[in-house]
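Box 4.2: Ligand-aware structure prediction
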Amino acid sequence: MVQIIYFSIPGETWHSGEIIVQIAGNTQMVAEQLGQLLNIAPEPIQPKVAYPKDYAGITQRATAEQSKWPKLQPGPTVHSELIYLGFPNWFGDVPPSVKSWLQQNDVRPTKLRVFVTHEGSGLGHALTSIQALAPQAIIEPGLAIRGGRANQAQLALQHWLLALEIKTKEKNDDRR
Ligand SMILES: Cc1cc2nc3c(=O)[nH]c(=O)nc-3n(C[C@H](O)[C@H](O)[C@H](O)COP(=O)(O)O)c2cc1C
C-alpha cells in the first residue's frame, strides 16, 4: 500500500513577488496531481487550530510554533510501507505541524518520498530534519517544486517517479 500525506496552507501566499489568495495551498495542488498519477486520495495533516488566512498572520504563527509544535487533528495514520510526504519549505526546514505528525506516528520501517514546495530554497534541510525525527525511516531522494509552478507539476512529478523507479530497480539488481 502507498499513502500521500501532506501539509499545506490555503489563503494568502507569495507568488512572483506579490501576495495572492489561493483556495488550495501550493503543496495541496502538488499532492492532488500526484494523487491523480498514482490513483490515491491525498490525506492532509491538519492542526487543531486552523492557521490565519493572511500571510503576516501565518508567518507570525509559524515563528511562534518553532519553539512549541502545534497539536493536530486526528489522522492520517500510517498503514503503508511507502509514504509520499509533502509540505512547504518553512524557514529552510519542515513545518512544525509535520514535525508533530512525525513525532506522533511510527514511520520506522517506512520508505519516505518527500516533496516540498518553496519560493527559492528548494528542499532546504528538510531531509536531514526528517531523518532526525524518524531515524529508522528510509528516506529516498526528494522533489522540490517552486510554489508558482505548483499547479503544473505533472511533468516534474513524472520525472521524479521514473527516477525513483530506476533507482529501486538498480538496487534490486545489485542484490541479485
Ligand atoms: C512561514 C513561512 C516560511 C517560509 N519560508 C520559506 C523559506 O525559508 N524558503 C522558501 O523558499 N520559501 C519559504 N516560504 C514559502 C513557501 O515555502 C511557499 O510559498 C510554499 O509553496 C507554500 O506552500 P503551501 O501553499 O502549500 O502552504 C515560507 C512560507 C511561509 C508561510
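In the box above, the bound molecule is flavin mononucleotide. The helical segments are 26-38, 55-65, 96-104, 126-133, 154-175.
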